[in-house]
């Protein structure tokens, strides 16, 4: 842990931004870098039904460009001496976050929880909970 980066998965929400403060604090404590990860859902489309006016690949590229722009804006606001890496991936959020978290380069994950309860908790994927349960490294879940 003390020599490996902190992973901060983000969806660019206010809740995720709140967790960034904890990620920075932990990175400063252990004198390690931060890896910022944004996962873009792979859009699905059936060419037979022509549901999309553009191809899923074009939509995914547009989403990646938007995420890159948000990542650039975030980095411009981030005032730290820490080493910061950014990664944008396509796919399932839990799968991609776990792939990154379980790599040899990550010592801890700092992830935001949207704090859903009741019916909302069952209707939406709880990414933070799955990552906390399946990651091999320590996970700090921030509300």
TrEMBL record:
Belongs to the universal stress protein A family. It comes from the Bacteria. SUPFAM superfamilies: Adenine nucleotide alpha hydrolases-like. InterPro entries: Rossmann-like_a/b/a_fold (IPR014729), Universal_stress_UspA (IPR006015), UspA (IPR006016). PANTHER family: SENSOR PROTEIN KDPD-RELATED, STRESS RESPONSE PROTEIN NHAX. It comes from Shewanella algicola. This is Universal stress protein. Residues 4-143 form the UspA domain. Pfam families: Usp (PF00582).
